[in-house]
Amino acid sequence: MDLLILDYRECDPEKCTARKLIDKKYAEKIVNDRELGRKGIYLNPLAEKAISPEDRAEATSGGIRAIDCTWTEAEEKIPEYENGRALPYLVAVNPVNYGKPFQLTTVEALAAALYILGEEEQAEDILSIFNWGEQFIEMNRNPLNDYQEAESSSEIVEIQKEYME
């Protein structure tokens, strides 16, 4: 699946997973936020609907789009488009937010989306360029597998409740 990233260039360039994905040609750079809502799906932590396997066809045809900005700026910078999808409960393994739920880097978010949509190999591939990347799948394997087997966004939300308890 195509991966596209809108990078606001707000994070430390040494630690920025989005820039590394773009530099290594794992993802394409988006130049303005209008490109987020044009096709495919885009990852929006504020979206009403969770990503689920029912989004596979849209993601296959138009790609998965992500925004790289600081968490404190997310509400102001992330536009609301119909194709926005939130990720369900997962735990970060990146060095900055290790062990924190929902505080994923761009690469973790994209890998999670890929995995949920049945693209495990591509998810592992993009994570492999980070020394901690492999741990993301290992730490979240059970919920990722459960989310992958869900049929709808509402089923994903129900499954995530079990992991949040």
Topology:
Layout: E1 3-7, H1 17-23, E2 28-30, E3 41-43, H2 56-62, E4 64-68, H3 74-77, E5 84-85, H4 106-116, H5 120-127, H6 133-149, H7 153-164
Parallel strand pairs: 1-2, 1-4, 3-4, 3-5
Helix pairs in contact: 4-5, 4-6
* Structural class designation: alpha/beta
Q: How many strands, which pairing sense, and closed or not: the largest β-sheet?
A: 5 strands, parallel
What is the number of domains?
1
Percentage of residues in strands: 5-15%
Number of strands: 5
Strand order of the largest sheet: 2-1-4-3-5
How many helices?
Answer: 7
Rg result: 14 Å
Uncertain spans: none
Shape: globular
Q: Averaged pLDDT, please?
A: 89
Order of helices and strands: EHEEHEHEHHHH
Helix content: 40-55%
Distance between the termini: 33 Å
Task: Output the keywords.
11% strand; 7 helices; globular; five-stranded parallel β-sheet; single chain; alpha/beta
How would you describe this protein?
This protein is of the alpha/beta class. The protein has one domain (3-164). It contains 7 helices and 5 strands. It has helices spanning 17-23, 56-62, 74-77, 106-116, 120-127, 133-149, 153-164; strands spanning 3-7, 28-30, 41-43, 64-68, 84-85. A 5-stranded parallel beta sheet has the order 2-1-4-3-5. Strand 1, helix 1 (17-23) and strand 2 form a beta-alpha-beta unit. The radius of gyration is 14 Å and the shape is globular. The model has no long low-confidence stretch (mean pLDDT 89).
